[in-house]
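Let's practice the habit of predicting before peeking. Look at the sequence and jot down your guess about where helices and strands might fall. Then scroll down.
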Amino acid sequence: MILGRVVGTLVANRKDEGLLGQKLLLVRNVTLGGEDASGFVVAVDSVGAGEGEMVLYASGSSARQTHATHEKPCDAVVMAIVDSWEVGGEEMFRKTSADGEWAS
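Done guessing? Here is the structure:
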């Protein structure tokens, strides 16, 4: 699982049948401190995540293990919206509202 922040959506009018009806998100990797890291991924959204939210995503064969992506042609899936995380007993982030804003 990898921490990321949803930075946008992707629309593809022509795609494999297995992806029909799937929402595609553009996710940027983040560090443990919540700062942007290098790397982006396009991921199928299995949890209803929105722009600006911190998420966990899986890639590779693990991405095809959710109900929404089972046997689908995807390489990444958002499988959790993160409410908070801590490192070494110190809270690094906590979701402060339903609109996805975060406090450090």
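How did you do? The beta strands are 2-10, 24-30, 36-45, 54-59, 76-81, 84-87, 90-95, 102-103.
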